[in-house]
Amino acid sequence: LQNDKKRLQISVRLKKDLIRGLGKHSHHRAAVKMLPTFVRATPDGTEKGDYLALDLGGTNFRVLYVRVVEEQQKVVKMDSKICSIPQEMMLGTGEQLFDHIAQCLGEFLESQDLKGQTLPLGFTFSFPCEQKEIDKSILIRWTKGFSCSGVEGQDVVKLLKEAIHRRGDYDIGSVAMVNDTVGTMMSCGYRDQSCEIGMIIGTGTNACYMEEIKNVKRVEGEDGRMCINTEWGGFGDDGSLKDILTEFDEVVDQTSINPGVHTFEKMISGMYLGEIVRLLLVKMAEDKLLFKGETSEALLTPGQFETKYISEIEEPDSGLENAQKILTALGLNWDPVDACVVRLVCDTISSRSARLCAAALATISNRIRVNRGLDHLKTTVGVDGTVYRKHPNFSEELQAAVRLLAPKCDITFLVSEDGSGKGAAMVTAVAQRIELCQINQYLFFLLTTVTKLL
Question: Which stretches make up the Hexokinase N-terminal domain (predicted)?
């Protein structure tokens, strides 16, 4: 992917996929799903108040109490609590699960002396869902070891509210369902109101952005914008990236828990980068290009070369020393040249990841610019994820490649602060602001009408 022409081709392919995903009749067969989020605006800086946030995406979930302070343009976490979900509950009934969540939320409210208040809640639910409205989201299927009965095909907001009402000792206000990528964008959007793209490059990868509603054919309306959750990890699932897949990518895909799915994600995200490097090192050793043609039990074991090793080996000052320690820990007989070659392999794989990611991000930035009929776009990307945060060169490489592919876009990168917590609260705050604005417009309309009649 050193070739700019190849990266431009990838960008053109993704552009076609974005349009297919937005189409009313083509979205069901699109590799890039382009899911409407019903988030219709980014923060404007006037949001304020107290909010709750619930973040459920694994064996633990978090409850947060968040204050949005307009004067300081800050989202302040007042307090939070982590609750665990026992294994038997992950496999039990949906009612048990949501009763447990409602109980933990109730205990948290009591500890904060908030039980008498009815606070709005942002709900980050990191499982595949089809969102119908900001407060209505249908679980498509469980992942991550969950298989609670009676939840798939149901509205998870309704199930949460029912569990709270069964208790009867507290209530919550309006609920906004939030995808973690959207939360990333929104948590940055309060600090920088030109933030209209969210991106995560960590264990997995995804992006969202503000699209013109008239282009979102599955949602009625012509005016305004809506945040679209691209689910760009699925780019290439229809074979459109076949020409850039290596034999190592194909092995990673075939040995994964979901072969044929999330092609793009498997080329660029933290869950897979270490394994791609491991397979490359094995091949080079077998071809007698490394380690005097010898391998080790550890190197031949899937998952043993962790993605964090790539970051450690590419550290500017201590990288070679780190490489030597890691190769020794993997039971390999190395010499100084081997350590340098391993570093080069790591750099090649992480650079490819950054450039692929840049091609996708440039596609979205260029789309926003063209949508708005602008010669030049100035925008901000809210970004999160361990690969972006912790790899020593990734962010720099990504930004340099985006500048080449989107020369008419001036893009600032802002690292998110707790997108799934504070960002979820921010989504709720913006939804409330819009609702209040609509009520005021309606009241003004009524008042004007009544005045005319009098």
Answer: 5-190
CA separation, residue 389 to residues 2, 347, 384, 396 (Å): 23, 16, 7, 11
> pTM for the complete prediction?
0.89
CA distance 369 to 289: 47
Q: Facing residues of 56 across strands? A: 61, 125
The DSSP call for residue 13 is: H
Residue 139: helix, strand or coil by DSSP?
strand
Instruction: Quick: pLDDT tens for 47-105.
Output: 889 999 999 877 888 999 999 887 776 777 889 999 999 989 999 999 999 999 999 99
Residues 144, 288, 378, 408: which is the catalytic one? 144
**Amino acid, single-letter form, for residue 269:** S
CB of 392 within 8 A of CB of 315?
A: yes
Q: Would you say 224 and 40 are in contact if contact means Cβ atoms under 8 Å apart?
A: yes
* Best CA proximity match to 346, nearest among 408, 398, 414, 394: 394
144 is catalytic: yes
Q: Could you tell me if 170 and 115 are in contact, meaning their C-beta atoms sit under 8 angstroms apart?
A: yes
Contact by Cβ (8 Å): 272, 265 = yes
153: phi > 0 → left, psi -120 to 50 → alpha, else beta; which? Answer: left
Among residues 55, 99, 135, 180, the one annotated as catalytic is: 180
- Active site (annotated) includes residue 171: no
